[in-house]
Give the backbone structure.
Amino acid sequence: MLRWPSRIGAGALLLVIAYLGVTFVQVFQASRRDDVERVQAIVVFGAAQYNGTPSPVLRARLDHAAKLFERGYADRLVVTGGRLPEDRFSEAGASARYLRSKGVPDSSILREVQGRTSWESLASAARLLKRRGMTDVVLVSDGFHAARIEAMASELGLEAHTSPTTTSPITGTETLPYLGKETLAVAAGRVLGFRRVSSVGHSLASD
């Protein structure tokens, strides 16, 4: 027969498992949902770039954002992402260059070039947008990213909608590790706050 401390521990474990299970379902559902509507700006999350050329993952995000721009969902595009010390180009710089090649006017592109994490990029983009009186945005990234970036945007005071790219090279069972990682990140962020979780994760990565 289980003693009370063991019962409490087993009960707590079941609650954690249930919480993670529900969060996983929510992350999965968000990955398949497109909430695009007319907004003030489209924010594109960065990914790897190679000497100024967007990686396939980043290119898929940019192609999707360019289509939304062409269809009139926003008059401004915000590209995000800084650069590593050895890089010549920032992710935002490579993204802006690519969008110009797709016919997006440079005057319509805002650049966030400091962020090294999703939180840093979105926080910096939020400051940039708020200085211009903009808070209503569509967030473009891979689907598995949608639940977390929407929650982060809410914490940063943005009215956000998500519109995942449909042409990402990360598909099928390849998305499962990403969905698992995002589940943990969303679960922790809801309890501790996404700013705090990002700071802890960045510190650990720097050690």
Summary: The chain is about 50% helix and 10% strand. The chain has one domain: 32-186. The first strand starts at residue 41 and ends at 44. The beta strands are 41-44, 49-50, 53-54, 77-80, 109-112, 136-140, 159-162.
